[in-house]
Amino acid sequence: MHGAQAIVQNSSVSAGRKSGNYINGFLDKYIGKQMKKYDSYARVLPWFMALFLSVLVAACGGGRDPILGSPALGLGVVSVSVTPATASLPTGGIQPLMATATYVDGSTRDVTATSNWASGTPSVATVVQDNGVATGVASGTSVISADFGGKSGSAVLTVTSATMVSMAVAPAAASIPIGSIQALISTATYSDGSTRDVTAYTNWTSGTPSVATVVQTTGVVTGIASGASVITANFGGKTSSANLTVTAATLASIAVTPALATVPVGLTQPFVATGTYSDGSIVDISKTAVWTSASPLVATVLSSTGVATGVSAGSALITATSGGKSGSATLTVIAGTLASIEVTPAPATVHIGFTQPFVAKGTYSDGSIIDISTSVAWTSGSPLVATVLSSTGVATGVSAGSALITATSGSSSGSATLTVLAPQGPAAVNLGSAGNFVVLAKSGISTTGTTAIVGDIGVSPIDSTAITGFSLIADPSNVFSTSLYVTGKVYAANYAVPTPTTMTTAISDMETAFVDAAGRATPDATDLGAGNISGLTLVPGLYKWGTGVQVTSAGVTLSGGPNDVWIFQIAQDLTVDNGAIVTLSGGAQAKNVFWQVSGQATLGTTADFKGNLLSQTLISLNTGAVVTGRMLAQTEVTLNAARVTKP
Question: Which of 72, 156, 240, 443 is the 20 to 30 Å CA partner of 411?
Fold first, then answer.
């Protein structure tokens, strides 16, 4: 037993040793393999981490783009500026603001949509978070701030007490072929006489979408089928409309301009495609044509816009195609380097609120001279005096003074001095809602012969029976009438609501404007020419006569800028003789000329008159008289084959 036990024990020990050896061997091999893998990973890991980090940094644009240093995240921002830095807007008016971030490397970026916008005084002006558009709420001043990347910039907005009195759509009538587009512009007029383009903020609708559609944010109309549609614009509680006719005309040919153009490598050249249709109409089809380049290695072109870009030296045929027709232009791309930039006009002058376009021409190393206006960066040395659109070079006068307008491309730049002039003369007369009319009277409007009026006309408190000679056609709504002699609408006190109230207000505003004009004190000249101003050139100002005023065939010239104002206070009659011409020079505008006449105003045969005529009695236009302005009479207006156009 002992022997057997010994044998068994020895066998067990031997088996245990074998089993232990097997397990130990297995573990040794397994651990050895893992250690080898570890050693391999350990050797590779530093390289892998270095590669990973380098890719990450590269993806970040070296700390600027677009992960760690993304401008969208605001990293590396050194400053934020808001433009315009100062602005004035009426109550209910809109002012778009732009926020620009400057980075540590000197680059800039538009961050309007990603900034945190706030108004210091929301009761005066509010601002929309995602687009920086401010709206005037009540008169006063508010600081509008934009925060981005830990930096902030601001603009000061002054809201005036002026309120919106009307809006207008231009063109008021248009005709386009099927498939073509027509851009409409809506303009708001305020009680202080100022105007603003509100196209982008207008609610646009088409009366007949099956004939024409309209884009809400742009006012661009597209012809769908032949017929007519009324396009209506609504903004700030006011409405206006345009009559659009869509024809079945077919496209006959396409012309591309400029037919020959030159551009350096890397710069752009916009082309325009003009379609001529079977009815003789000519339409810009640049946005509906398909654009192609015959040599994309020389120049590419955006298929939807016609903007070409130079790629390499050579020539490329740029073609616009639509409706089976095509037209082409030749684009030459040069490889020369930019040597200098010239900005014109130099110098230039503009009035406050008006624009001055500048042109930048680049001279290249091969001697070629190219218009690079849309390829340079434009800046103003004094944005409080004049601002300039960075992409186009169109400057706007902000306040009186001088500003250096500069165009820069790479290391080259050129400049021109812009002088901004303040308006001269007295403040304009506020016509209120009377300004919505081109002819307005209390006791009647009559015409004989073929009269042509552009704008709305109206009477009150007299009813429509006092509007004679116009062959009125009542609108189904009975709110207004139309006439073959009036490009606009005809209103009377007896029409359907809201016309009676509208007319009562307009007449009241007309009378208020008359009193305002008559009450202006401290004239610049009294009884000039003993009442005969023929042959004179009059600068902006307030002129007063205790008698009547006459303009003979020698005419009179009003010389001044587009914002300048003239007010003529006439105690008796105004007589403009046959053939007499009131001439505007220097950019003067008829809308800024006010003739306040306490007696009767008579415009002779073929007289050419400019300005707003406010008469306490009768206004009479003889055969062939032409007026650019308004005829606002507290009795009646008579016309004989005359032409009156609202300014």
Answer: 72
Tokens of 553: 């065939």
Tell me the C-alpha to C-alpha distance, in Å, between residue 490 and each of 89, 167, 439, 440, 503: 31, 17, 10, 10, 11
* pLDDT at residue 331, rounded to an integer: 97
Write the pLDDT tens digit of every residue in 17-27. Answer: 333 443 344 33
Q: Name the residue type at position 123.
A: S
As a whole number of angstroms, the distance between CA 591 and CA 587 comes to: 12
Residues 294/317, Cβ–Cβ less than 8 Å: yes
Could you list the beta-strand ranges (E) of 258-392: 260-264, 268-270, 272-277, 282-284, 290-293, 299-301, 307-310, 314-322, 325-334, 338-344, 348-351, 355-357, 359-364, 369-371, 377-380, 386-388
- What's the half-sphere exposure (Cβ side, CA atoms, 13 Å) at 433? 13
**Per-residue confidence at 75, pLDDT binned at 50, 70, 90?**
low
**What pLDDT is recorded for position 4?**
37
Average pLDDT over residues 374-393: 90
Mean pLDDT for the chain overall: 87
Euclidean distance between CA atoms 17 and 489, whole angstroms: 115
SS3 state of residue 514: helix
- pTM, 2 dp: 0.56
